Amino acid sequence: MPTPNPILVVDDEPLIRRTLCRLLDRHGYPAIEAEHGAHALELLESHDIDVALTDIKMPVMDGMEFLRRARAIRPQLMVIVSTAYASVETAIQALREGAYDYLIKPVELDDVLNKIGRLVERRAMEQELASLRQELHRQYDFAQIIGQSAAMRRVFDVIRRVADMETTVLVTGESGTGKELIARAIHYNGRRSSQRFVPINCAALPENLIESELFGYKRGAFTGAMRDKDGLFRAAAGG
Predict the structure, then answer these.
(1) C-alpha torsion sign, points 84, 56, 50, 132
(2) Sign of CA dihedral 109, 74, 101, 122
(3) Which residues pair with 103 in a beta bridge?
(4) Angle, nearest 10°, between helix axes 88-96 and 63-73?
């Protein structure tokens, strides 16, 4: 895994800040520190930060205010809050404000590492997924469809016009002319590109199974139906 972006540690107690930063550094997580929420917001503007660990009770700007402002500036920021004045209500409020997790002071160092590790791993997976989606877009953009003729330019124009439409698109053509490639280009150039694209070869489905494959079935609906099964329409819902 590549070296993660620095973890932002926000606490008004210098000893706690430095202890946490040293702990994170020793375990491969570079860390920078801020003494209160206002200072932390300044660091967000000048550093590429994915994860922040912040105290709740601080002067100048407390952790809840920092959480609200930080999420407004950088919605993808993942924040863990910690407090010595914890209650169930405080934790719930922080989670409602967009925190990903919370710690109770005095914090257990192993707990800090476990929570930070999970968030760093999650961010790495999100970045990998975004990269894969970009690659899918690249594979199915117009540049990957061979053809510069006037007829193909008309096809590209149709793809652009129908990609975001809330309607059914029928693609016709002889075998080998690239119908599925056109269908994928429509999908990956439209608003639903982040959702599933589910190609179905209906010719390969026995006639008596098409309905159950497309629409699914409930347990006991017929002999051999041992459990509920979602159909392919449901599998592609939203895509």
Answers:
(1) positive
(2) negative
(3) 82
(4) 20
Instruction: Work out the burial of residue 78: count CB atoms within 10 Å of its CB; fewer than 13 is exposed, 13-18 middle, 19 or more buried.
Output: buried
Cβ of 105: how many Cβ atoms within 10 Å? Answer: 16
Nearest one of 42, 29, 33 to 9, comparing CA atoms: 33
Q: How far apart are CA 110 and CA 116, in angstroms?
A: 10
- Mean per-residue pLDDT, 79-97: 79
> pTM above the 0.70 mark?
no
> Can you give 6-23 as a three-state secondary structure string?
CEEEECCCHHHHHHHHHH
Q: Which residues contact 76 (CB under 8 A, 6 or more apart)?
A: 50, 126
| Cα 118–Cα 44–Cα 28 angle in degrees, nearest 5 | 40
Beta strands in the chain (DSSP E): 7-10, 31-34, 51-55, 78-83, 101-104, 216-217, 229-230
Distances (CA, A) of 57 to 32, 84, 232: 19, 8, 51
Please name which of 139, 135, 142 lies closest in space to residue 157, comparing C-alpha atoms. Answer: 142
Beta bridge partners of 230: 216
Separation of first and last alpha carbons in the chain: 31
pLDDT single digits (tens) 174-223: 888 888 888 888 888 888 888 888 888 888 888 888 888 899 888 887 77
